[in-house]
Amino acid sequence: MKHLKLLLLSLAIGALVVAPIGQGNYIIYTLCSWLLFSISAMGLNLTLGYAGQVSLAQAGFMGIGAYITALMTLAGIHWIVAAGVSISTCFAVGLLLGYPALRVQHHFLAFVTLAFNTLLFLVLRNEEEITGGSFGLVGMPRPSFFGISTNSNLAFYYFSLACFLTAVAVMWWILRSPWGRSFKALRENPIRAESLGLKIRRQTLLAFAIGSAFGGLAGAMQAPLVQFIEPGSFALVHSLKILLMVVVGGSGYFYGPMLGAAVVILLPEVLRFTEGYYLIIYSALVIVLMVFSPNGLIGAGQKIWTKFRPKHEERRDMQKGFQL
Amino acid sequence: MNAPILSVRNISKQFGGIRAVNNVSFDVRKGEILGLIGPNGSGKSTLFNCILGQLKPTEGHCEINGKSTDGVRPADLSLMGVGRTFQQLSVFPKMSVLDNVILAGQEHEGTMLSRLFGKSDAGLTDKAKQLIEFFRLTPYLDTEAGSLSYGQQKLVDAAMAFMAGPGIVLLDEPAGGVNLTMLAHLKDRLMTYNRDHGTTFVVIEHNMEFVMSLCTRIIVLAQGEIIAEGSPDEIRSNQMVIDAYLGG
Amino acid sequence: MAELIQILVSGLAAGSIYALAAVGFTLLWQASQTINFAQGEFVMLPAFFVLVGVHFLGLPLWPAIFFGLLLSLLILGVAFKRLIVEPMLPHGTLPLVIATIALGLLLKESVKEFYGATAQPFPAIFPQTVYNVMGASVSLQDICNLAVSMLAIGGLQLFLSRTRTGRCMQASAQNPAVAEILGVNVKRMVLYTFLINAALATIASVLISPIYLAKFSNGETLGLVAFIAAIVGGFNQIRGALVGGLLIGVIDNLSAVYISAEYRAAMPLLLLIAIILLRPQGLLGTKEGRSV
Question: Is B95 in Cβ contact with A181 (below 8 Å)?
Answer without folding.
Answer: yes
